[in-house]
Design brief:
Elements lengths: L6 H21 L10 E7 L4 H7 L6 H8 L1 E7 L7 H10 L3 H4 L5 E4 L4 E4 L8 E2 L19 H8 L6 E5 L2 H8 L4 E6 L4 E5 L8 H7 L3 H4 L4 E2 L30 E2 L9 H9 L2 H17 L8 E7 L1 H9 L4 H25 L5 E6 L8 H6 L5 E3 L1 H16 L4 E5 L2 E5 L1 H4 L5 H13 L4 E6 L13 H6 L9 E5 L3 E3 L13 H4 E8 L5 E2 L9 H8 L14 H5 L2
Parallel strand pairs: 1-11, 1-12, 2-20, 6-7, 6-11, 13-18
Antiparallel strand pairs: 2-19, 3-4, 5-8, 7-8, 9-10, 12-19, 14-15, 15-17, 16-17
Helix pairs in contact: 3-13, 4-7, 8-11, 11-13, 12-13, 15-17
Length: 554
């Protein structure tokens, strides 16, 4: 049978088919019709994957719920060599490695002054209502890449707000970028402060928060165990821990007065180690949510919070200590309060997206590793620098100065700086000497970084972390389990090995497909994924990509 359709009816049917096709296409779009009102960007300083996985069964608060209900990647790994706080936060914020964003370490050697300075040093911008240290961080002027915060501000034509909070300036500054607000804890005054880069005066909401003097209130308190002693693994009193870290004692309970008679810089420093620091950040975040009206309209905002107390505990007591176990339990509680406050500010879970990661992991205390049979050694960079200086001075018959900052070796001296000595020859001689030392896997002069063979896969991480204006003249990698530190006790991080570079990544909330994702990813993917959730372009120098499986389930 031949079906005949009149022209008028054909037009009507065409319109019907077109309408059905459009409806079908719309139904196939992602569930989020628009960007979340609020994005909560959380970083936990020194939260390595191994540390989190060991403690996960006891986490039932905010952190535990994120792992259970979010898109959880246990195995993200930084692709550059020096796993440190400043480059880690810059990478999370920009989606780029240090070779693009320029933040190679917490400190860099300033050749003009002959001293180590903090990487976000900016003498032209002072701290507001705090103490300005001449060598300390104060602005993002040295951050050479656009951040997620900057991209949001541009994409929303300045309407979207960004507030970043941390105990460390080198964490808050990159998370705020050039155009957000950065606030950090000032150990000299016990207040949250910013610099003249970000504000001309402290806003009323932060003034009101500082007036609460939460750090002063912690002076008379002690850090007690949250759970019964039987629930903690190992021993509280470990011989490998410092005898009296931060003047708070080696075992629980810990006094938080710093040995002082009244609150002051010493007690504020101890406060920053204790779990009370988590609570102060949560309370400051709640003040920012209300004071800035974050999440109150359809223009997306970002609240970034970097918890720094975990890193201070790590350095003093080590990642296996009771102190680390307890601070994670208390962070778990604090994070629950933070997430609840963010949900309320955004008008419910349906309007909130959350991302969580860490800037680095960390090594066990070298002596504790050695007691357990691990071939661990404490490497003093000061002594290594002396040995290298003696070698170069004997070889070239001239004064050559050596400064070691983590994996960077800075060479100087009048003979080298005046051109009397061949710089390339000196740098290659330094690399050759370092390569022969029992603590070294490889060493390479900056002149050979692009051409050096990479049979062990460690030159590529050095390249990604190298920025000519700030990196050393020679780069080296120590052997696994060598803890580079000029302190006789405690521990450190900063190598390309998994205990330092492997961190968790979690996405949760609006637009996210929950699940456990076991593929190894790179933290450069965090900001591109958030860019996709925010329905905007990526920061200009981003190297990562959106994690499509966390957004589509495929």
């Amino acid at each position: 049978m031949l079906l005949t359709i009149r022209p008028g009816r054909l037009s009507a049917m065409s319109r019907l088919l077109t309408t059905l096709a459009v409806l079908s296409a719309l139904s196939a779009l992602p569930a989020q019709a628009k960007a979340p009102k609020l994005t909560l960007f959380i970083s936990v300083d020194a939260l390595g994957s191994d540390l989190l996985l060991r403690n996960r069964p006891r986490l039932t608060g905010g952190l535990g719920r994120l792992l259970d209900t979010g898109a959880y990647y246990p195995y993200a790994r930084y692709a550059y060599a020096e796993a440190r706080t400043a480059p880690g936060h810059a990478t999370l914020a920009t989606g780029a490695n240090p070779w693009r964003h320029g933040i190679v370490d917490n400190d860099v050697y300033e050749r003009a002054s002959g001293q180590a300075v903090q990487v976000y040093l900016d003498p032209t911008h002072q701290v507001l209502e705090g103490v300005t240290v001449p060598t300390a961080d104060s602005s993002p002027a040295n951050l050479m890449a656009e951040t997620l915060a900057d991209r949001l501000r541009v994409a929303t034509q300045g309407r979207g707000k960004v507030v970043a909070l941390s105990f460390k300036a080198r964490a808050a500054i990159p998370l705020a970028g050039r155009t957000g607000q950065a606030w950090w804890f000032d150990e000299a005054t016990g207040k949250m402060v910013t610099s003249t880069w970000y504000a001309k005066e402290v806003p009323a909401w932060m003034q009101a928060f500082n007036a609460r003097k939460l750090a002063d209130a912690g002076f008379s308190k002690t850090w007690e165990l949250l759970r019964p002693r039987a629930e903690y693994v190992g021993e509280d009193d470990r011989a490998t821990e410092p005898p009296d870290p931060y003047s708070m004692g080696r075992t629980f309970p810990h006094a938080l007065n710093g040995g002082l008679k009244a609150p002051g810089p010493g007690s504020y420093r101890v406060f920053g180690v204790s779990p009370l620091s988590h609570d102060l950040l949560v309370q400051s975040a709640k003040a920012a949510l209300e004071g800035e009206g974050l999440g109150k309209d359809d223009v997306p905002d970002i609240l970034a919070v970097s918890f720094s107390g975990t890193d201070a505990v790590f350095h003093a007591f080590g990642p296996y200590s009771w102190e680390m176990q307890d601070t994670l339990l208390r962070l778990d509680q604090a994070m629950g309060e933070l997430i609840t406050a963010a949900e309320r500010a955004a008008g419910g879970k349906a309007h909130l997206t959350i991302a969580l990661s860490a800037d680095h992991g960390g090594a066990e205390i070298a002596e504790a590793w050695a007691q357990a049979g691990v071939p661990a050694v404490r490497l003093n960079p000061v002594e290594a620098a002396k040995g290298l200086a003696q070698e170069l001075q004997a070889k070239f018959k001239a004064d050559v100065t050596v400064k070691l900052l983590e994996l960077d070796v800075y060479l100087g001296g009048k003979a080298l700086e005046s051109g009397q000595l061949d710089g390339v020859a000196v740098r290659r001689a330094a690399a050759a000497w370092l390569a022969k030392q029992p603590f070294t896997v490889l060493a390479v002069a900056k002149d050979d970084l692009d051409t050096a063979p990479d049979t062990g896969g460690l030159v590529a991480p050095l390249r990604r972390g190298y920025y000519p204006q700030r990196s050393g003249d020679v780069l080296f990698v120590s052997k696994p389990f060598y803890v580079v530190s000029d302190y006789p006790r405690g521990t450190n991080h900063g190598t390309p090995y998994s205990y330092d570079t492997q961190v968790p990544v979690v996405f949760a909330g609006k637009g996210v497909k929950p699940g456990l994702y076991l593929q190894e990813i790179d933290p450069v993917d965090v900001t591109p994924t958030l860019s996709a959730l925010l329905e905007m372009g990526m920061p200009a120098s981003a190297e990562g990509k959106p994690r499509a499986e966390a957004l589509t389930g495929k």
